[in-house]
Amino acid sequence: MTDLDDIFTARGSVLIAGASINGSTADIAIDETGTIAAIGEDARRAIDADIVIDGSDRLAVPGLVNTHTHAAMTLLRGYADDMLLQEWLSQKIWPLEAHLTGDDVYAGTKLACLEMIKSGTVAFNDMYFFMDRAAAAVDDMGMRATLAYGFIDLGMEEKREAEIKATEALVDHIRSLNNPRIQAAVGPHSVYTVSPEGLSWCAEYAKEQGIGIHVHLSETEKEVTDCVAQFGKRPTYLLDEYGCLTPRTVAAHCCWLDEAECRLLGERGVSASHNPASNMKLAVNRAMPYHWLKQYGANVALGTDGCSSNNNLDIFEEMKFAALLQKFAWNSPTLLPAGEAVMMATAAGARALGIGPGTLTVGAPADIVLLDARAVCNTPLYNPDSNIVYACNGGAVMTVLCGGRVLMHERTVPGEEEIIQEAAAAARSLIERAKNSA
Ligand SMILES: N[C@@H](CCSC[C@H]1O[C@@H](n2cnc3c(=O)[nH]cnc32)[C@H](O)[C@@H]1O)C(=O)O
Ligand SMILES: [Zn+2]
Predict the structure, then answer these.
(1) Which residues surround ligand 2, an ion (CB under 5 A)?
(2) Mean pLDDT of the region 384-403
(3) Which of 10, 94, 103, 189 is least enclosed, having the fewest CB within 10 Å?
(4) Complex ipTM
């Protein structure tokens, strides 16, 4: 077995020896390109391993995907809780965000990456500002991410011009990084913060650049009633009218949808990001109609939302909240069984971001998580999906690989103390600056 220090610095092929995959024990071979080359009997012959990881007492599962975050909001964790969404945003969050700097976003995004890696997430879909600094954090941490500048014009032409420039600058910057793990998306925030002109620019630009769209959709009832009052149609139709619903669109929340809207999202091939913890915390008072979205073929994945409305980035918790909320809200104990919750966090998430199948199969990117099979939450282990969704949280994650690179091993992530200290210092100074200007 390779030593802990060498595991993080060595590059090349990786053998995970004797891990449990879907109930049977198998070796996993990962080649130098970070792709799963073989699983099972062929694995030892497939590569001449540079790194060997002991997989005994480990459950191997695909890396988890978080399809809706505002990563740097880790700095606002616990800053304002227990409020109405509109008041929370306009009275607390937006005034504090006005003082955020690029350095803050770098420190906050690094803390978010650390938190995600520690809970088994390898890829995330982020919408925020100073996204060039978020990209630097993702690059340093070795994760995958799709990064969008949160486009908000509030119906003002001058602001729209600025948001267009910021969006174009981010897309150019990400292209210049030439990092295969980092991609750009266009991020029209929502129908209540972006004008029709803004929405249609975002859709055109995404199409022209061949990139995805990341948008909030029908989070609250007020969003829907205001949209109907202003535009005479529900938010889904407004987004569709301006071209924002595509197979590369991730729509976060999707709570207040009727059946016809779910059918349209399915027809357009949209991915819906379910964020049950945030939705319950902000009391949006309606659970995403998962049954309709599933029936009409929308791709339903999971997200945490930002750390100010969750307040963590643990997708294990999100799997459990999703499975429980759906059952409770729609009065159906058979709705969203454990196996489907795992699929939402893995295969559906990977499809939403276009990063491979999100499965442990030959030819797939080696995005692999090893869980402690001997942990209390995994004892007994009748059905791994059940333990993963209902009993475990991210604390059961021992090792994380992204594209064949080891990001965490035996729960150690290189540099974690500094990341925590720097984020804590950034948060302190942010609050200080906001206080001094008030
Ligand atoms: N260009 C914008 C930045 C937008 S970033 C995305 C925004 O989404 C906000 N946000 C976070 N969580 C939610 C949510 O649940 N609903 C709506 N907006 C949210 C977040 O605080 C941030 O302001 C500007 O100049 O203000
Ligand atoms: Zn959000």
Answers:
(1) 305
(2) 98
(3) 94
(4) 0.92
